Amino acid sequence: MKTIQLGTSGLKVPTIAIGCMRLNGLSESEAEVFLRTAIDLGANFFDHADIYGKGECEKLFAKAIGMNSAVREKIILQSKCGIRSGIGYDFSKEYILESVDGILDRLNTDYLDVLLLHRPDALMEPQEVAEAFAALHQSGKVRHFGVSNHSPLQIQLLQKAVKQPLIVNQLQLSIAHASMITQGLHVNVDDEGALSRDGGVLDFCRLNDITIQPWSPFQYGFFQGTFLGSDKYPKLNEVLDTIAAKYQSTNTAIALAWLLRHPAKFQPVIGTTNRQRLKECVSAADLYLTREEWYRIYKAAGNTLP
Ligand SMILES: NC(=O)c1ccc[n+]([C@@H]2O[C@H](COP(=O)([O-])OP(=O)(O)OC[C@H]3O[C@@H](n4cnc5c(N)ncnc54)[C@H](OP(=O)(O)O)[C@@H]3O)[C@@H](O)[C@H]2O)c1
Fold first, then answer.
1. 89 carries an active-site annotation
2. Is 217 near ligand 1, meaning CB less than 6 Å away?
C-alpha cells in the first residue's frame, strides 16, 4: 500500500484509512477476518470516534483484533471526541480528558496515534483545548492532534493556543459532495458553484500541510446512500464503469482513485465492512487517472466548470 506523510508529523500512513463507524454491523468473528484482511493488505490505519456505536465499535475493534502490545505496534489508531450526547458539542478540558480515557479503555491501549476534535464546538475556549492537548501529549496518551469538520479560521483560532501542530482535518468529500473543489474553480464567478461553504478549507490545508481525510467517499448528501449504482447518478455511473473497464478495475476503485488523484494527497476514510470491497478500495492506490478522466468524472456527477 502506498503511503503519505500525515500533515507535518513525519508519520508515514497508508493512503487509505479504514473507518470503523459501521464495524458494529459485524459479529466479532466477522470483524476479526475483516480487520486481519485490512492489515494484510497494508491498510493498518484505523479511524474511530467515541460515539461510533456509542462506544461499541471501539470495544469490538479491540476484541476482534486481539489487542496486545505486539498488535498495537503494527497499527495506527486515530479516534475523535467532542460530540456529547444529550448536549451537542463539548471541547472543555475536563470532557476531552475524560473522553480520551474512555477511548483508551475501550480500545485496550495506552496511547492514540492521532486524536481529532470531531465537530466544532461554539463554546470552545482555545486555551482549554491547549491545556487538554498538552496534558495528553505529556502523559503519552496522544501523540498527534487534529480536527474534523473545521474551517480555516477555526483551525487558526485553535492553533493560536495549541502548541502541538494540528495535522489532520477530516471533512466530507466525494465526487458527489465536492463543493470544496468546485468553489476553487468558480472564483469570482456569479453562480452557485462559487458559493464558499467552508472558507477555502482545501487551499488552507494545502498551504499549511494539513492532511485532509475525506469521510464518506462513496456517499451523496448527508448519509443518504452511495452514488455507486444509484439511479440518481446515471451519467456518473456510466462514466465510472467505462473508465473501470479501461483499467480492468471496478467503479468503487475508480471513485476512490478520483480522490487519490488530487495533488492535495488526501487520505480517504472508507467505511466498507465488506472484504471484497475493501480489496477493491486498496487497489485504487495503484491507479492514476489522467487529467481528462478526472474532469470527466467530476462533470458526470453534476459538478460544474465556469
Ligand atoms: N468526521 C466525521 O464527521 C465523519 C462522519 C462520518 C464518517 N466518518 C468516518 O468516515 C468513515 C467512512 O464513512 P462512510 O461509511 O459513510 O463511508 P463510505 O465508504 O462512503 O460508505 C460506506 C457504506 O457504503 C456502502 N457501499 C460502498 N460502496 C457500495 C456499493 N458499491 N454498493 C452498495 N453499497 C456500497 C458500504 O457497504 P458495504 O459495507 O457493504 O461495503 C457502507 O455501508 C466512517 O467509518 C468514519 O470513520 C467521519
1. no
2. yes
- pTM listed for this prediction: 0.98
Handedness of CA 263, 264, 270, 275 (dihedral sign): positive
16 lines ligand 1 (CB under 6 A): no
Would 97 be classed as within a structural domain?
yes
> Which residues span the domain enclosing 175?
3-230+259-287
**pLDDT band at residue 68 using 50, 70 and 90 as cut-offs:** very high
304 occurs within a structural domain: no
CATH number at residue 64: 3.20.20.100
| Residues 41, 221: Cα–Cα separation, whole Å | 30
Per the structure, the count of domains in the chain is 1
Asked, for residue 127, whether it belongs to a domain, the answer is yes
> Cα–Cα–Cα angle for 133, 138, 141, nearest 5°?
75
Which residue owns the Cα nearest ligand 1 atom 31? Answer: 228
Distance (angstroms) between ligand 1 centre and the Cα of 137 equals 31
Q: Which atom of ligand 1 is nearest to the CA of 252?
A: 31
Mean pLDDT over all residues of the chain? Answer: 98
The 10s digit of each residue's pLDDT in 127-162 is: 999 999 999 999 999 999 999 999 999 999 999 999
Choosing from 52, 95, 220, 298, which is the catalytic residue?
52
The candidate with the shortest Cα–Cα distance to 299, out of 176, 172, 215, is: 176
Per residue in 224-248, pLDDT (tens digit) is 999 999 999 999 999 999 999 999 9
Question: Ligand 1: which residue has its CA nearest to atom 46?
Answer: 19
236 assigned to some structural domain:
no
Assign 211 to helix, strand or coil: strand
